[in-house]
Amino acid sequence: MIAREAILERYRKKYPYSDRPAAPYLRFRPELPAGASRQSLPSMISAKFAVTETGEVDSVELFPAPDVRVEREIRRALDGWLFLPRLEKGSPRTKLFEVPLSFDPATR
Which of 8, 52, 101, 104 is the most exposed, fewest CB within 10 Å of its CB? Predict the structure, then answer.
């Protein structure tokens, strides 16, 4: 956690008065739980979430909603994603995102 705080502090110092978009710096690809079939999933699931002022993912919504076990794995992966937060005049702000998650084996 200390390393993360240091990254955010350097980011804010580097852009003290700037407007900057949120940018991911750590993401994990969601994995399917054991026994889940790719054929039972849509090829694409849309993940909507907020990136908070601290760069963490919050308020995840999935469309279309997968089965409970798959949803749990997707949420677990997204909970580990970290961003440099959006800056508005150097101050961190929450930003809404929508990201497509592909479960099509051809795009892996």
Answer: 104
